Amino acid sequence: MGKNKEFDIVITPENRGGSSVISELFRYKDMMLLMLRRDIIANYKQTILGPTWAVIQPIVSAIITAFVFGGLAGLSPSGIPTFLFYMIGQVSWGFFSGSLNGSANVFLNHSGLLSKVYFPRFVMPITDVMSRCISLLIQLAIFAAFYIGFVISGAAIRPHWTIVLLPFYLAHLAVIGVGVGSILSAFTTKYRDTVFLIGYLTSFWSYLSPIVYDIGIVPERFLKIYLLNPVAPVINHIRYAVFSQGMLTWNYYFISLAVGILLLIAGYKVFNKTERTFIDTI
Q: Buried b / exposed e across 271-280, counting CB within 10 Å, b at 16+?
């Protein structure tokens, strides 16, 4: 018999570039659809009103913010119906914050599935955003109905040609949300109480963004710094596209877009690093 030979086998993850990541996700498209269906059912299972909550939530939020910030504080701009001003802000912010929180908590929410079967883990934040798009479409349809009603009643509002960019603007918010959320997922996996800190973070971030007030009230000397918030130019452009009032800040919008792409890339790398060890800490 020959000498016993010792072999060291080192298994390393595949070095995945952008094209291989997309192709891998495409191979698991059926699983993405199944997870999407499961998320949609889980969101409304054993609820009294079911998908109606997607309609009620932005309407109630818009009424409350319109009363408090528009009526009592007088922060709504002139020339735009207060209710519509706050509703589009709440719908846009709700989609962004939902994407952020869903991505940040993805390992906690899917721990049972992750410990049993392999699939590209980045499928989870993507399907989470896709499921939120269903609620978003319902909310935008309700907003459009109110918008048409106000126009018929004589409101001097008209959509700007940039309304055709609305899907791109909303995708931009999702990119920022998934990027930041994927980075934060590394902390929520190890430290459970960071879930509460993320709630405070998103609340604080909303007040740094033109959600409950118009960007026009920001003092000129602070405006350049304010617009470095990557969410602020996007929300501002969404409102301009809908109402044709305010100002377009393309320079800061493209800065926001670049920041969003960098956050998504960084989030993807942090997410991949976290997925290797999350089962030991979850």
A: bbebbeebee
| CA–CA gap between residue 190 and residue 198 (Å, rounded) | 14
**Total count of domains within the chain:** 1
Residue 36 lies in a domain: yes
Residue 138 lies in a domain: yes
Query: In terms of Cα–Cα distance, which of 96, 97, 65 is closest to 213?
Result: 65
The parent domain of residue 215 ranges over 18-281
Q: Which of 67-76, 118-127, 213-222, 226-235 has the lowest mean pLDDT?
A: 118-127
What pLDDT digit, counting tens, does each position of 7-35 carry?
555 544 455 555 556 676 677 666 677 77
Per-residue pLDDT at 127 exceeds 70: yes
DSSP tag of 3: P
- Report if residue 7 sits inside a domain: no
Q: What angle do CA 50, 206, 256 make, to 5 degrees?
A: 110
Q: Within 10 Å of residue 238's Cβ, how many Cβ atoms? A: 23
2 inside domain = no
- The alpha carbon of residue 233 and the mean position of all alpha carbons in its chain are separated, in whole angstroms, by 15
CA 217 to chain centre: 25
**pTM for the full predicted model:** 0.83
